[in-house]
Amino acid sequence: MQKTILVTGGLGFIGSHTVVALQEAGYEVVIVDNLSNSFAFVLDGICSISGVMPRFYEGDCNDRAFMQQLFDKEKIVGVIHFAAYKAVGESVAYPLKYYHNNLLSLIVLLELMQQYKVAHLVFSSSCTVYGQPEQLPVDESAPILPAQSPYGNTKQVSEEIIRDSVQAGIPIKVLALRYFNPIGAHPSAHIGELPIGVPNNLVPYITQTAAGIRPELSIFGKDYNTPDGTCIRDFIHVMDLAEAHVKALDYLLRQDAPSLYDYVNIGTGKGHSVLEVVQTFERVNRIKLPYKFAPRRPGDVEQIYAKADKACQLLGWKASRSLDQALRDAWQWQVALKEKGILEKMQKAETNS
Question: What family, per the record (predicted)?
Answer without folding.
Answer: Belongs to the NAD(P)-dependent epimerase/dehydratase family.
